[in-house]
Amino acid sequence: MPIANCQLLPNAGATIQAMFTGIIEEVGRVTGIVHANGNRRLTVAAARLNQELKTGDSIAVSGVCLTAIEITPTSFAADLAAETWKRTSFSRIKKDALVNLELPMRADGRFGGHIVQGHVDGTGNFLALDRVRGADDYWLRIEIPPELARYVIFKGSLCIEGISLTVARIDGTTVSAAIIPHTVKMTNLNSLEPGDPVNLEVDMVAKYVEKMLKGGSENSSLTVERLVSEGF
Predict the structure, then answer these.
(1) Which of 35, 42, 112, 220 is a Cys-bridge partner for 216, taking CB atoms 3.0 to 4.6 Å apart?
(2) In three state form, how does the secondary structure of the chain look?
(3) Closest by CA position to 28, among listed 64, 67, 70, 62
(4) Per-residue pLDDT tens for 156-199?
(5) Mean pLDDT of all residues in 1-12
(6) How far is the C-alpha of 54 from the C-alpha of 12, rounded, in Å?
(7) The model's pTM
């Protein structure tokens, strides 16, 4: 079940869905995790993006849309519900862990990745980040849950730890993506260890298409024409 984590603060008004592109803007560092009353408060040090944050703003943290609170010149905090902790890669988070950060796409911004909501569909297992022999590039290999495999196709989009990536190989439930040196430098991929869980968000268009092919509900207003009008 997808996790919707852009939670509003009390009395903040109606929910506005943030949209991301999977282009990582900064790598933050976890400086603290406080556990109280079944919830956890995650504090992340960030040198740049937190300068643009206001209380209640959305920010994607390793692919999970969270609500920023307690913003300082050098950090921000976000509350994690128990379900979020359980169902995302945050279960491996410890002090000094690196996390990928992205602010929501601006209305006048350039669209560089693919449609990312920050709603995690599940977690996979990091297998390896191997240097390509005779090149500067890398192969990222992860194991994905069988129930998500039907949404992942060759040359399709897959969001891993908040990073918009193109699927280059599929072998059963093992998925590989070609990674350029810039991506390794600008993300947390190089800090992962084999077996670490990684957040996954599949292409939302694939889920819409699946529902359309299954017929959806009788009263569904979802059509190809509507998808096109919405920019898909």
Answers:
(1) 220
(2) CCECCCCCCCCCCCCCCCCECCCCCEEEEEEEEEEECCEEEEEEECCCHHHHCCCCCEEEECCEEEECECCCCCEEEEEECHHHHHHCHHHHCCCCCEEEEECCCCCCCCCCCCCECCCECEEEEEEEEEECCCCCCEEEEEECCHHHHCCCCCCCEEEECCEEEEEEEEECCEEEEEECHHHHHHCCHHHCCCCCEEEEEECHHHHHHHHHHHCCCCCCCCCHHHHHHCCC
(3) 62
(4) 999 999 999 999 999 999 999 999 999 999 999 999 999 999 99
(5) 41
(6) 13
(7) 0.82
Here the tokens at position 4 are 């919707």
What CA–CA distance (Å, rounded) separates 66 from 84?
10
Return the structure tokens found at 231: 């920019």
Tell me how far apart the alpha carbons of residues 148 and 2 are, in angstroms, rounded to a whole number.
11
